[in-house]
Amino acid sequence: MLRMSLDMVVLRLNEERLELLLETRDRPPFAHCWQLPALRIDETRDRDLDAARHRLLTEWGLGHCYSEQVCTLGNLERDPRGWSTTLVYLCLVDPEVEVLHGCWHPLAALPGLSLAFDHTQLIARGLERLRIKSRYSTLPLQLLGAEFTLSEVQRAFEIILQTPMNTAAFRKRIHRADILVDTGRKRTGKQRPAILYRLESPCCVMFDQVMHGAEA
What are the residues whose beta carbons fall under 8 Å from the beta carbon of 56, sequence distance 6 or more? Predict the structure, then answer.
């Protein structure tokens, strides 16, 4: 029987590092290995792919988080039980989201984990999408909380792209995208007070040109 599933690469930005949501698989094959949030498509419950995606997000407590389809993978080797196909999604959550299952792992810790099926490849596909799209869109803002400073926005891009940004050029680009709303409040701390912003719309906006690290 052909197996069709959804696998979701769920990421958050916590303490200036990207973390991935995983759970322990409780049955064979790959019992006791770590796996991505996933579900089998159920033709009696899922009228279409969007309904299946929504069911997966809801079951994990991620109903209002950003998600997008990354790719479709299918072959005879990915599952020892036979041919299977999966639709891979990327999901970005803010640090305050309380998930219903699994636990968070820093990306740096993944090489030491035993992952089920071809989930190492699926994770790589999700990260590739995040990093490529972050060069030409506001996608990293989906990893921030309801309110944030411009410094936090810049830091999110730098962590994802693994390169420093020219602050003046980066802020000019962000303001030109016209997606931020000044909340009228400021964050105080050791540094001087910084304006708190929020997203005007949850949509991901494309930049007018691609960013190139410190050139931003």
Answer: 6, 8, 37, 38, 39, 89
